[in-house]
Amino acid sequence: MSQSTSSYISGPRPGETTWIWLIKIVTGPLLILVLMLHLIVNHYIGSTPTGLMTYTDIVRYYQNPIIPAIEILFLITVVTHSLIGLRGIILDMNPSRQVLSVVTWLFSLLGVFSVVYGIWLALTIASKGG
Amino acid sequence: MDQTRNQPSAGKFWSWFIPVGRQVGGWAFALNRVTAIGLTFYLFLHLAVLSLLAKGPDGYNGFLALTENPIIKFGEWAVVAAVFLHGLNGIRIILTSFGVGVTRQKQLFYGFTVVAVLIILIFTIRMY
Amino acid sequence: MTENWKITLRVYRQKENQTSHFDDFQMDVNPDEYVLDAVERAWAFHDRTICFRHACHHSTCGACGMRVNGVEKLTCITLIRDVTRNGATLKVEPLRNFPVVSDLAVDMGVFYRKMEAVGARAVLPVTEAEIEDPPSKWDAEDSQYIRLSDCIECGLCMSACPIMATTPEYLGPAPLAAAQDQGLRRKPELLSVVDCEDGVWRCHSAFECTAVCPSFVEPARRIMNLRVQVVDMRLRKLFGKA
Amino acid sequence: MSKPHVIVIGAGFTGVATAHDLALRGCDVTVVERGDLCNGTSGRTHGLLHSGGRYAVKDKESAVECIDENMILRKIVPQVIEPNGGLFVALDESDLAYAEQFIESCEECHIPLEELKPDQALKLEPNINPKVLIAFLIPDGTFDPLRLALAFAGTAKHNGAKFHTFTEVGSLLTDGAGNVTGIKVSNRASGKSEEMRADVVVNATGAWAGHITAMAGLDAPVKPTPGIMVAYNQRFVQRALNRLNAPGDGDIVLPQRRMVVVGTTSFDAEDVDYIPTTDDQIKLMLERGSELIPGIRSAKPRGIFMAARPLVGGGSGRSMARTFKCYDHKETHNVDGLVTITGGKATTLRAMAEKTADVVCAKLNITTPCATKETPLLSYRQYYATTN
Fold first, then answer.
1. How many domains does chain C have?
2. Is the pLDDT score of A105 beyond 80?
3. Are D241 and D277 a contacting pair, CB within 8 Å?
4. Whole domain around residue C56: which residue ranges?
5. Of D147, D235, D380, Cβ closest to residue C131
6. Do residue C95 and residue C114 come from a single domain?
7. Cα A25 from chain centroid?
């Protein structure tokens, strides 16, 4: 962290950088597209009257290998976007640097775990159809 | 005098939610934040619930019956509403962040909110 | 003949260690006067212990920023007619996010120090003065003339910004706008000051600063542009084309 | 040997400049101000970095002071000055008649002058009245009032001066023989009152000088002479604009940020704590201002205010001399420990401080000469640095 020339209260905290913001900005629009797809799929082509998909619908839907791939991609973007955003909100609670690094680690673990769990779930559903 | 003796504004971190003197941009920001928190909560709830899928059909279909319960249905509707309000407002923020329409951000917000409400209506009809 | 309104001037009062309260002053005002005139009259004729900051009375010094009926205003150019009605109340409170010295006067020292940290320019060449429709075109020949910059360091944007309320360490709209005004290309050392969590990435596009800015600085637009400048510089650094 | 302690009452231009000068000369300075910096006349000055042109014909003494100080200020505090120059414009025959003596007087007061033909003037400033007959380019300029004071105050603070704002002088402390030994003040922000002792008390309260001298049973020949100023919401000109004639009402229009400020009038007033603006004077400014810049008719006012000039000496209003007076009350009224400085113009704040500091140092037998002519001032934001 470069000791900045500023003489105001404290040196800038290095927590947020261009890349974190860029990821949030890139994942945002991506999310909208995939989410539209996700909502249409879940509310329009299911067999129940309100369009929700039953278990068998889902298994059949997952047979085409592209679907799990899209769903996993969707999971990665939504988890990244939401955790970066949530961390931004926590930043506004003015945490100390230690608390902030703990939060950052926690969220990264949570993100990785959710994605791994999602991949496992998608593969098990796909395998059910085999 | 370092102890920042602030005055009427309440505690620090929820002060973005205090409506005093807020103008359009401030509301959009508060709305965006509320929907963000709601959506993130729903995301992890959604992931947890889907684990039923791995346990086999009866567990999951049993849960499906739950979605008819009005409270859960309203929750689902709220999620859909939050998605479009947050999403379209996010597009507005991205546009203004790259200088597009920055001077007309209020109109942009009104426009996107109308579009969001329309889409939400479509889904409401679909769900009820 | 000048119109005459009867209003209740409700003034936020706080002495050093006592709790804050509001004092009401029944005032006869001319609606075409400015809020600052009413406050100054309340001091002159009603209560000489009212503390408030004022100097130029024509929006060039930045001392008289207050919250009028909850919204940040420069009281020296805010007509009473625009903020209240005959017989109604006119509430004046100090700016938010600054320590209160007393009553309506706040200590803006940290804000001035931030402006100094980003090297905000007090005067700038006329040709760089972004006036949308300059009455006479500032052609190159005018370049040697200089003009006081638009930002009068009144602190209204710092008070209106919802993120400023979360931490005093956030640079804030005006300092970021001042950094953008100089451009990162011209002052690369600003990059480390603004490209951090208390800098340009804390802005969540609430646009409250532009809504209250009395001097056409439009800090929000400038912060957005500053963000693009930072991204551009970071990308160049990444691909070695700095 | 501990530093001599000097209290300066009033943090307007004269007060902060005197504090700066005394701090440079090794005094321990305390400035007390009942409001915040420049909340009196200084804040509401027109903002003209005077070249002396306006007073060259009638008041050569203050004209010379102005042009000399103008040049010094441009060197020591460029950060708050728009050194864009000024124009004296003649619009009718009576203006034209004034040109002759104007040129002579300016040369006499070594004020640089350049005559311009109407088309040249209109090329420099397209928005001035097209009926301009003749114009003179002079080294006027404009400055931001509060920041000019902050630059002096910040530098003084950096050199050890202490500032107590919202601290009002209740009474003067005296020893048995009626000499002033300090002041009794009440702090409006905390409600506490305290006593401050000093070797010398400088009364730099400008138009309010009489209030302080009255506390010592003396009077100060200052005649508060307010004038109105109206700011309009469009920047029509880059340079200061003066009407080429004897000083009159509404004869100066200055650019200030994105505005122009039309000034001023002149009338007597006793109580200067609050001076209401009057409709007729506002109309007069619109009238006179639009003679110089027709576009002002379509502009909207953005701030209307009164500023009370502290004029000294005999006569009244416009005829009074613009120079300043510094009284060591030891000589004038055999009251030691009190020095009053009043009168003068904003542009001459440094010279007024030098004169005052000379008087104070003579009383404290300090021999260090005045150095403010060559010492550049720190950034005005230095006043807010976290030193003392």
1. 2
2. yes
3. no
4. 5-106
5. D235
6. no
7. 13
Domains of chain D, earliest start first:
5-42+146-221+322-384 (3.50.50.60), 48-143+223-312 (3.30.9.10)
Looking at CA atoms only, how far is residue B69 from chain C in angstroms? Answer: 37
**Domain membership flag for residue C95:** yes
B57 vs A contacts (CB less than 8 Å): 54-56
Tens digits of per-residue pLDDT, D12-53? 999 999 999 999 999 999 999 999 999 999 999 999 999 999
Q: Residue with structure tokens 């706040």?
A: C106
Average pLDDT, chain C: 90
Q: What is the arrangement of strands in the sheet containing C65-68, beginning at the earlier edge strand? A: C21-29, C5-13, C89-93, C65-68, C71-74
pLDDT of amino acid C76? 96
- CA D163 and chain centroid, separation: 20
CATH classification of the domain holding C222: 1.10.1060.10
* Distance (Å, whole) CA C203 – CA D255: 34
Tokens of B77: 């509707």
User: Number of helices (H) and strands (E), helices first, in chain B?
Assistant: 4, 0
Does a cis peptide bond (omega within 30 degrees of 0) precede residue D375? no
In this prediction, residue B13 has a pLDDT band, given cuts at 50, 70 and 90, of low
Band of the pLDDT at A13, cuts 50, 70, 90? low
C142 within some domain: no
CB pairs under 8 A between B and C: 103
- Residue A109 in contact with partner chain B when CB distance is under 8 A: no
- Strands D162-164 and D167-174 come out as unpaired
Element (H, E) at D145: helix D145-158
CB contact under 8 A, C145 and D82: yes
Q: C206 vs chain B: nearest CA distance in angstroms?
A: 5
The pTM is what? 0.90
Residues with Cβ within 8 Å of residue D106, at least 6 apart in sequence? D52, D53, D56, D112, D113, D136, D138
Report the first-to-last Cα separation within chain A, whole angstroms: 53
Domain architecture of chain B: domains with CATH: 23-127 (1.20.1300.10)
Instruction: Name the residue in chain A with its Cα closest to that of C111.
Output: A8
Sheet holding D134-138, edge to edge: D114-116, D134-138, D86-90, D240-243, D252-256, D259-263, D222-232, D301-312
Tokens coding D202:
């400088």
State residue C93 phi and psi, 5-degree precision: -130, 160
Percentage of the residues of chain D whose pLDDT score is greater than 90? 77
pLDDT band at residue D7 under the 50/70/90 scheme: very high
- pLDDT value of position C79: 96
Residue with the larger pLDDT of the pair D66 and B104 = D66
Looking at domain A18-129, does it have CATH number 1.20.1300.10? yes
A·B CB contacts under 8 A: 75
Substitution target in A4, A17, A21, A94 with the highest count of C β-carbons within 10 Å is A4
Interface test with C, best of A2, A8, A91, A101 (most C CBs within 10 A): A8
The string of pLDDT tens digits covering residues C120-167 is: 999 988 877 777 666 555 565 656 788 999 999 999 999 999 888 888
Query: In angstroms, what separates the C-alpha of C205 from chain D's closest C-alpha?
Result: 27
Instruction: Give the gyration radius of chain B's Cα atoms.
Output: 19
- Cβ contact, residue pair C197, A2, below 8 Å: no
The confidence band for A6, taking pLDDT boundaries of 50, 70 and 90, is very low
- What CATH number is given to the structural domain containing C61? 3.10.20.30
- Chosen for mutation from C97, C156, C207 (greatest number of chain B CBs closer than 10 Å) is C207
Chain B residues 69-88 with CB within 8 Å of chain A: 80, 83, 87-88
Give the model's pLDDT for residue D367. Answer: 92
Taking an 8 Å cut-off on Cβ atoms, the answer to whether B20 and C70 are in contact is yes
The closest alpha carbon to A79, from C10, B42, C136, C44, belongs to B42
